[in-house]
User: What shape does this take?
Amino acid sequence: MDAFLLALPLVFQPNVLAVMALAAIFGLFVGSVPGLTATMATALLVPLTFFMDPVPAIAAMVTATAMAIFAGDIPGALLRVPGTPASAAYAAEAYAMTRKGLAERALGTSLVGSAIGGMFGTVVLVISAPQLAEVALQFTQFEYFWLACLGLSCAVFVSTASPVKGTVSLLIGLMMATVGIDITAGHPRYTFGIPDLLGGIAFIPAMIGMFAVAEILRNVVSTAPVEPPRLEHLFRVFQGLGGVFMRYWRGLVRGSVLGTAVGILPGAGGDIAAWVAYALSKKLSKEPKKFGTGHVEGIVDAGAANNAALSGAWVPALVFGIPGDSITAIVIGVLYVKGMNPGPTVFLQNPELIYGVFITFFLANIVLIPFGFAAIGLARHILRIPRSIVWPIVLLFSMVGAYAIDNSLFGIVVMLTVGVLAFLMEENGFPVAPAILGLVLGPMLEGNFMTAMIKADGNLLGFFERPIAAVLGVITLLLWATPLILVALRRARLRAAGERG
Amino acid sequence: MRFNDAIIGGILIAFALVAGYATRDFPQIPGQSYGAALFPRLLCGGFAICGLLLILSGRRQRAARGPWLDLDDWARTLSGPLTLAITVGGVVFYILVSEWLGFIPTAFLMSAALLLRLRGRWVSSLAIAAIVTLAIHQIFYGLLLVPLPWGVLEPLVF
Assistant: This one.
C-alpha cells in the first residue's frame, strides 16, 4: 500500500501525463496506419524514452501500445487492412459489418472491448505479479535457467507453423547475444577486432532494425494504394453497445481470460491471442454460421483478447525478466539499458516503480475510450496520408534513433544489417519474434547456465536437484520432445495404414 | 523471395562450422573443463541440427517440384528491387558520408531520393524531404541534444 501511495505522485505529474497523452496520440497514429505495428511503435519510442526517467518511459510505452492495438482495428474495419497484426483475426468480420452499414457498431464494440480486456489483464497483472515475485525470490540460477529455456521454447512453438524455423530464429537471436566480451571468462567473442562490438550487439539498434527497417523494406516494394473510407455517423459509435455486451458478456469474459493467459505465455502476444479468441468464439457460439458475414460476436472476444494479452505479457516480464511478447522484450531491453534489471528484486527495491506501471496501465485503458473515439473520428484523415510519405519518415526516424543511443554511426550499421537479415528471414518464413527474445534473454540464459554449471561442478544432474527446478526442467524436456513424439506417432500411423492398405 | 529450405539449411551448417571453429581459442574458466566456448558451441550444434532438418524438408520440396528460388511478384519486376536498392543504398550512403556532409544535407538527399522513387512527384517530394529532415533535426538535435553532425554546414550552426 505504501508503495502504491509513493507511486501515485510519480505518475500524476504534469510531465508524465503529458508524455502519456503524446504517446497515446503517437500510438493511435502508428496503429491506424497499416504496416506500422504496435511493436514498431515501441521500437520507435525507445530512442525518445532513452532520455526520460523510468516511470515516464514505461508510461509512454504502455500507453502507446494499448492505443496502437486498438487503433489497428480502425483500418481493419474500414478497409479490411488490419493496422497491426493483432487485428488481423477479425478484420474481415469487421469489414463485413462496415459493408452492412455497421462500421460504427464494429468500432465501438472493439473500442470498449479493448478497454475492458485491457483492464482485466491489468487486474490479473496487479494481483498475480507481487505474489509470483515472492515465489521468484526463492529461485536460484537453476530455476532461472529452466524458466528461460521454457519461455524461449514456448516462443518457438507458439509463434510459427514450423518449429524448425522458429528454432533457427531463436538460435540467431541467442548467437547475436554471444557477441562481445563474454561474462564468465572475460574473453571477446565474435568481435572481428571491431571495438564497437566489444560491448555486444547494441540491443536498441538491433531491435529498431528488426521491427522498423524490415517492415519498411517489406512495404516499400509493394505499396498498394489505399482508398480513404467514409464514416457517416460518428456519434453512433457507442449506440447499442450495452445490448451487444449484455448479449455477449460470456465472450467478453472468455476473450479477456484467454488473452491474458496467452499474453503471459512467453513469445505469444496480442496477435495470437486474437486468433485463438476468435476461433474459440466461433466454436462455442450458438450461431457459428453468422461468423464471417458481419457478426459482432467474434469481435467482442478477439477485441478484448488482444488488449488483455498486452497486460498479461507484463506478468513474466516484471516478475522473472522473461518477456511475454516482443513488446515486453523491447521494454526489458530498455530497462536493462537504464541499469534496472527486471525480476523479483525490483519488487523489493523499487516497488513504487512496479506500482507506477500498474497505475499507468489502468490510466491507459481508461483514456483509451476518449482517445480511441477521437481516433475513429479522425480515421478518415489519417488513412488518407499516403503511405509513400510514411515510409521515408519512419526510415529517417529509425536511423536517428539508432544513432542517438550511443551517438555512433555503428548503431545505424547494426540497424541496417539486422533489418536486412530480418527482412530475408520473414520472406523465407522465419518468424522474428523468437530472435528478439533470444537476443534479450541470451545473456541471462548463458549467465544462469554457466553459474549453475559451476555450482553443480559440471554435473548436469545438478540442474534437477531442487524441486522447482526439477519440475521446470522436466516440463521443458517434455516440450522439446513433443515434435519428435508427434513425428514418431505420425510415422507409426502411416505404417499401420500402409500395412492395412 | 523464398529460397528452397535446402539452400538455407546448407548456409546454416556452413555458418555452424565457421562459428564453431572460431571458438577454438576461447579460454576456459579456471578449474573447469569448459568456458566461454561452451554456450556458442551448443548453439552451433543447434544450427547444424536445424540445417540438416531444413535440407531434408528442402529435398521434399524438390521432390514435389518446388523451385530452388521462388520470386514474389515484387521481385519479378525491375521496380521492386530498384526501390529496395534505393532504400538500403540510402542508409549506406548516410553511414558513409553523414560525418563530413552533415546530417541535414545527407538526410535530405536520402529521403528525397526515396520519396521521389515512391511518389514520382518532384516539387512535393523535395518539400516533404526538407520539412521532415528539419523536423527530425529539431526533435533530436534541439530537444534531445543528440549531437547530429553539422558537416559542411558547420559555419551556419544555429
